TrEMBL record:
Keywords: Kelch repeat, Signal. SUPFAM superfamilies: Galactose oxidase, central domain, Kelch motif. It comes from the Eukaryota. This is Uncharacterized protein. The keyword Magnesium does not apply. Pfam families: Kelch_KLHDC2_KLHL20_DRC7. It comes from Tigriopus californicus (Marine copepod). The lineage of its organism: Eukaryota, Metazoa, Ecdysozoa, Arthropoda, Crustacea. Residues 1-17 form the signal peptide. The keyword Signal applies.
Amino acid sequence: MEILWLFFALLISSVTGEGEKLIVIGGQGPDVNEVVDLFTDSLYENCTEIQRYPIGFVGGSALKNSDGLLFCGGQANYKECFRYDVNDENSWSLLNFGTIQHRVYSASAPYSADGWWITGGYHDQNSSLLSTEILQSGSFVPGPNLPTPLYQHCLVRIDETRYFLTGGLPYSTSAWIFDTNTQVWEEVANPSVLRKSPYCGLSKTFNGEFQIVVSGGFDGMTPLDSVEIFSVSDQSWRFGPSLPQPMGRGATSSYGDTFILVGGYGDGGYVKDLYQYEPDSGTWATLPQKLQKGRSRHVALVVDVKDLNCTQPLA
């Protein structure tokens, strides 16, 4: 397994960088944020601890764009957004915009060149949301409604114009693709397994095939290890390799042509493990790195060292 991970890490490094880190913010379980080295031989080993988020950040949304590392929500009655500002004493800066709607347990993805699409979620008046909103030019504007109200679902950006949606509550085995050109949700083939709080990631094989991997999550209070893979070209489903353990409520972070599953909650409690999907072999690689503290309902982003306060160790 260690040899497999070393080979895959070297392969990924050809399309990513040694100076990349995984940041993990908020969630249930811990009271601190984390910075994880994705390469154990990274030239940048020493990173200043990221200060606590200004509020309890659970079920919020995060994005990296040209404005930096942006975070919104995190509580059912909270609209405010913050930027992590490494140049201002490693602190959080309150932004002059917030979300239109209180929402928690929403799903988000990059939108257009520098925008952000936040969809659905749970409202502070005990209702799931049909609405969405898009960050454009420094403010949120109403976006296209979801095909049905959802929270604890997942949204994956396929390419510049298409998005994939599935999972969540109320329970449904439906799946849709949204096209920004037509502004229409098209229902596609349904997955077989009901899931809330699943992991969803986009992967690309050597032959250029895009796949959306939907894994884990919960059926009621039971964590799942089952995996289903949606072929974007064929618009068909197949079962994939089971997760190393049943878990859900974690974070999925894009990484090169694949993704990393970060933490979550399973039969043994909060999960510390990191798992990377290998699309060509159809396997899960258990990364040698682990979270210092297991957590769930957090966010995770792969960032460059320039986004953090990191230094090279002395020779």
